[in-house]
Automatic annotation (TrEMBL):
Any one GO molecular function term: ATP binding
SMART domains the UniProt entry points to: AAA (SM00382)
Keyword Mitochondrion included in the entry's annotation: no
Span of domain ABC transporter: 2-216
Gene3D superfamilies for this protein: P-loop containing nucleotide triphosphate hydrolases
The organism of origin for this protein: Pusillibacter faecalis
Keywords for this protein: ATP-binding, Nucleotide-binding, Transport
Entry keyword Transcription: no
Protein name, entry field: ABC transporter ATP-binding protein
Pfam families: ABC_tran
């Protein structure tokens, strides 16, 4: 289990994280929704060890951890297959092939990143992250900027690959529909300096239809929370840090 306790971070005069705590168990997909610039990437960087926190602790991130960045970050001089294989070169070839099929890149194995569309590059990055494997997956707006159809397709790819090993996934998104489709829990973050201001539990199995009527009330509550930070008392600038409601 990943356990974050009391994380604080500032960049010079800018406080970014303020006493942020959360847990993530294997088999959970936790979506993080929060305003732009509130500190979501900083949080993932702290979990992955790329950035050091000023205070607080990260427990349970010392095993194998996959991090899918906002951009695909493929090596331009390596093919699709080589980019995926790179993170675990000793894996059997069938494993790489099965992931390439799972993300719909069959036939493009020998293409270089410069020959791929943005969506194909993201799919390659998704396959690479799952090829690396591990108990924890960090995903930073992995489908940002892709059209609705491709995003939904990628979400179902994510779910079908996730169902193989059921790692714990921390998934940053600005799209409520993405969160409603795949998350087991949703955390709404406050503006900077951020902390979690509310948790939402999701009903039923992952792979939901985000437009289903039974999710309408939940969607409204999430929107109310996102748009009502300042009225509700859950805001940055030293306000209440965490209101966890299960
Ligand atoms: N290395 C750094 N040095 C100085 N300031 C930084 C650094 N990294 C991030 N910041 C600042 O920290 C704040 C949070 O940035 P971060 O990228 O974590 O936000 P975010 O929530 O992921 O944003 P977005 O949703 O727009 O991607 C921003 O104001 C940013 O300018």
């Amino acid at each position: 289990m990943l356990r974050l306790s009391g994380l604080c971070k500032r960049f010079e005069d800018l406080p970014v994280l303020s006493n942020l705590s959360l847990t993530l168990s294997r088999g959970e997909i936790v979506a993080l929704i929060g305003p732009s610039g509130c500190g979501k990437t900083t949080l993932l960087n702290i979990i992955s060890g790329l950035t050091a926190p000023d205070a607080g602790t990260v427990e349970g991130a010392d095993g194998r951890l996959s991090y899918m960045f906002q951009s695909a970050r493929l090596l331009p001089w390596r093919t699709v297959e080589e980019n995926i294989r790179l993170v675990r070169e000793d894996a059997p070839a069938e494993e790489v092939r099965s992931l390439i099929t799972a993300v719909g890149l069959e036939g493009f194995e020998r293409y270089y990143p410069g020959q791929l569309s943005g969506g194909m590059a993201r799919r390659c990055a998704l396959a690479r992250a799952f090829h690396f494997g591990g108990e924890i997956f960090l995903m930073d707006e992995p489908f940002q900027g892709l059209d609705y159809g491709i995003r939904m397709e990628m979400l179902s790819m994510l779910l079908s690959i996730w169902q193989r090993e059921r790692p714990g996934v921390l998934f940053v998104t600005h799209e409520i529909d993405e969160a409603l489709t795949v998350a087991t829990r949703i955390a709404v973050l406050a503006p900077r300096p951020t902390a979690i201001c509310q948790w939402f539990d999701l009903p039923g199995p992952e792979g939901r239809d985000a437009s289903a009527p039974e999710l309408a009330r939940l969607r409204q509550e999430i929107i109310r929370r996102i748009t009502g930070y300042n009225q509700s008392g859950c805001h940055g600038n030293g306000g209440p840090q965490e209101k966890v409601i299960y």
